[in-house]
Amino acid sequence: MTRIRHFLDHNAGAPLLDAARARMIEAMDLAGNPSSVHAEGRAARAVVEQARAEVAALCGTATDRVLFTSGGTEANAWMLHQARPGRLLVSGIEHDSIARARPDAVVLPVDGGGVVDPDAVARALDALPGGAAGAMVVVMAVNNETGVIQPIAEIAGVARARGVRIACDGVQAAGRIDLVPLAGLVDFLSLSAHKIGGPKGVGALIAGAGVEPGAMIAGGQEFRRRGGTENLPGIAGFGAAAAVASARDRAADNRRIGALRDRIEVSLAAVADDVIFAGSNAWTGRVANTTSVVLPGLAGEMQVMRMDLAGIAVSAGSACSSGKVTASPVLLAMGFEDLAGQAIRVSLGASTTEDDVDAFVRAWTAMAARRLRTTVSA
Predict the structure, then answer these.
(1) 313 pairs with which residues across the strands?
(2) Active site residue 320
(3) pLDDT (average), residues 231-237
(4) Cα separation, 362 vs 263, whole angstroms
(5) What are phi and psi of 190, to 5 degrees?
(6) Euclidean distance between the first and final Cα of the chain, in Å?
(7) d(Cα 143, Cα 95) in Å, to the nearest integer?
(8) CA pair distance 244, 151, nearest whole angstrom
(9) Which end of the chain is more exposed for a tag (fewer CB within 10 A), N or C?
(10) Distance CA 289, CA 37 (A)
């Protein structure tokens, strides 16, 4: 008998949507190269441009502002490619693709709730040698581990007042908050298809109005800014997923998913009085689907393995860092110190049910009780 699995790791990657799968299968049957001028090539080009329009609509921007990439990591690298050495500021809670990419960056601190203080951004910019001119600020919209929403409007105001560019990792924001105002605030926004039910291995860089990013890869594709034959099935699936995200009632989704997240936190707090939900005290709030659960005394990787054995998929942080038994840099930046290695991330999605949540609560409760017995016997 096949054991029922409960998938609670949507921040690592959401299940592929039926609409995305169907569009990808159609695209796979097209023989033409999107750059070819014959009928077959034009048919393939039409698929790319339909997807570009769908991603643009999700962001409320023009189609020529959407530049397809191999995923969020490449889009982040492209953003960083625009920043001059010694003129880059990044928050202390960024994804590894930003945090580890530029050792020359000035690191912006966060408070205990995981929020970047706009005033701290202003002070850091004003402290740059020669002033802020020519600098770039990079702050993610939604943290991938805690779900904490960053005050991008306020930070963008600080940047604009100093003539500074602002770039934003929007990978975890898509489908959870409105991207239209966000895209209008920043010079660059990165997205990844598989966070919204599209395929893995495709993403986009969204350039702000009037912003002309330098080429990432020489070649004729993507408005001569990213060479290489387009990933036609991936882009097609991305467009379909973006169309679904645009059509969904996001407020209703967030109410349902948020109620499930709250149910988890209330249930866990009732059985372990020392459990901590990192970022739950953020003054900016969290997206509805994410909780970072700190269980003192038990390593996060061990918690993930015990959940896996119980048929439940969660993570110990960013999927790009899985397999590494290390403390979370995000929680370290938030001041969790020794507890930074004792957390798991639970992330819900459109397919999450009450049964999934109840199964997790049962397994976590058993794990917490086992931890307590082990502590007492020791």
Answers:
(1) 7
(2) yes
(3) 98
(4) 12
(5) -100, 145
(6) 38
(7) 8
(8) 26
(9) N
(10) 45
Percent of all residues in the chain with a pLDDT value above 90, rounded to a whole number: 93
> What is the structure's pLDDT at 370?
87
Distance between CA atoms of 238 and 187, rounded to whole angstroms?
Answer: 22
Q: Report d(CA 55, CA 73) in Å as an integer.
A: 17
The catalytic position among 299, 320, 332, 372 is 320
Euclidean distance between CA atoms 21 and 31, whole angstroms: 18
User: What pLDDT score does 319 carry?
Assistant: 53
- Collapsing DSSP states into helix, strand and coil, what is residue 75? helix
Angle, CA 350 vertex, CA 346 and CA 351 arms, to 5°? 85
Residues contacting residue 277 through CB under 8 Å, at least 6 positions apart: 265, 291, 292, 293, 294
Stretch 274-295: mean pLDDT: 98
- Give the integer Cα–Cα distance in Å for 360 and 354: 10
Task: Please report, for residues 57, 139, 290, 352, the alpha-carbon distance to residue 285 in angstroms, rounded to integers and kept in the order given.
Answer: 26, 16, 11, 21
Sorted by where each starts, the structural domains of the chain and their CATH numbers stand as 6-14+249-377 (3.90.1150.10), 18-247 (3.40.640.10)
**Identity of the residue numbered 277:** F
Q: What is the mean pLDDT of residues 299-321?
A: 87
Q: Could you give the residue ranges of the DSSP H alpha helices within the chain?
A: 18-28, 39-59, 72-81, 96-99, 118-126, 152-161, 179-185, 221-224, 232-247, 250-271, 300-309, 329-333, 354-377
Instruction: Please report the pLDDT score of residue 1 as a whole number.
Output: 41
Full-model pTM:
0.94
CB burial of 155-172 (b: ≥16 within 10 Å; e: otherwise) equals bbbbbeebebbbbbbbbb
Q: Backbone dihedral region of 87: left (phi > 0), alpha (psi from -120 to 50 degrees) or beta?
A: alpha
Instruction: Please write down the long-range contacts of 42-48, taking CB distance under 8 Å and 24 or more positions apart.
Output: 44/232, 47/232, 47/235, 47/236, 47/239, 48/230, 48/232, 48/235, 48/236
- What is the per-residue pLDDT across 83-94, written as a single tens digit (0 to 9) for each? 988 899 999 999
Q: Which two tokens stand for residue 37?
A: 């001028």
> For residue range 151-185, what is the model confidence (pLDDT) as tens digits?
999 999 999 999 999 999 999 999 999 999 999 99
CB 29 within 8 A of CB 209: no
Among residues 170, 374, 172, the alpha carbon closest in space to that of 292 is found at 172
